[in-house]
Amino acid sequence: MSLSRRSIIQGAAAAAAVGATGIARAQAGPLRVGLILPMSGIGAEAGAAWHAGVKVAVEQWNAAGGLVGRPIELVVRDDKFTSAGAVAAARELAGSGVNLLIGGSQSPMALATAPILPELKAVMVAPCPTVMSLTHEGFQPNFFRLSWNAFIAFAGVGNLLTNKFSEVQTWSLIVPDSENGRDMARYFTLGAQRAAQQAGRQIKVLEPVFASLNKADYRVEINSLMNAPSQGLFVGLTAAPCISLLQQGRAVGMDKKFKVIGDAGTEMLIAKAMQKSLPPNLWSISFWVPGIESSNRYPLSRALHEGYAKLTGDRNPAGIVHSSHRAALGLFNGVKKAGSTDTAAVIAALEGLTYDTAMGPYHIRKEDHQGLGTAYIAKVGVKDEAPGYGITDAVVLNEADVAEPPTPGKKFEV
Q1: Using omega within 30 degrees of 0 as the cis cutoff, is the peptide bond preceding 387 cis?
Q2: CA dist 89 to 35, 77, 79, 347, Å?
Q3: pTM of the predicted model, to two decimals?
Q4: Any idea what DSSP says for residue 266?
Q5: Quick count: other Cβ atoms within 10 Å of Cβ 105?
Q6: Are the C-beta atoms of residues 129 and 105 closer than 8 Å to each other?
Q7: pLDDT tens track for 56-92
Q8: Which pLDDT tens digit goes with each residue over 284-298?
Q9: Of 3, 57, 59, 66, which one has the fewest beta carbons inside 10 Å?
Q10: What is the pLDDT of residue 389?
Q11: Please, are residues 123 and 344 in contact by the beta-carbon 8 Å criterion?
């Protein structure tokens, strides 16, 4: 059977109309955002906290009408707390057309995924990685660190703890056996030594004890720490490894040996695990402390706290809930400013962006994609009121006051 020229033209027009309608419907569908987190293994507890923060942000934006006229849909992938898992998840999401990513939650995963983002034509905002190279010699234009870095965080906590505990003359450190761990040790030492010099006294920071994050037994490392001639300890292990170290150390009196223990940000996760068995003088870097005066002044802090409690039934969130909430808000505000989900447009919109968070205004430096805002160094301890533990003191850290200058593409030198 032959077709007339008119039939062919009419058929082509109809197909074009159907195609256009299909495109319109696709564009009107959910805006998919990839979320890459450790949902299993030793990082699962931290992953659950990060997941909750992002889910609250999505619910808040969807309740207000979504993003660029579309509801936001999270597409969650488990990185298994490994670099290989993070890369596989990013490639899978990009292959399915998801170019907006929240991931690289900690340094190993961020270091693995940041270099492949241009190839994937994707943009990623990261809630917690601290390793310095991400925004210096390893700078990638498709990657944004919406978190403190090692210099801001660990020089800050070293400075504060040295000033606050002048009786501590010698510090021990236990950190991950990684680039990030060496950054932690380097900048904690720098901050502590600078504080001591300014106070006209001398301290000693011992060579760090390096440990794997992929183990459950830290008896060898604890033995080394117990035999050290130190009165202060900084723990650079995070999430489950940090909790395991402190629980195992308590069994041999490590919590009594050290007059003060500093922590790299596990705070309320430690409190929930150890409760009444918490070390008596534990100070942690914290993204957010809901309920205290300096947090309550921000409407988004109360909204995040209530949203988290409604979602989980828990009124005592870990501070890292804010870190992922803040990262999600950054991405959503970038897309809104761009008026598009196009990767290049979103990157341009994120550069130099300032937006509101649960800890007040947050700014992303255009030059190196480093985020700067407000954080805390908080004391985690036993409390009389329910649930019997929580943040008992907090000191504000203004990140812009201590941040290093931007040097994208060049190694950071003190």
Answers
A1: yes
A2: 9, 6, 6, 21
A3: 0.87
A4: -
A5: 29
A6: yes
A7: 999 999 999 999 999 999 999 999 999 999 999 999 9
A8: 999 999 988 878 889
A9: 3
A10: 93
A11: no
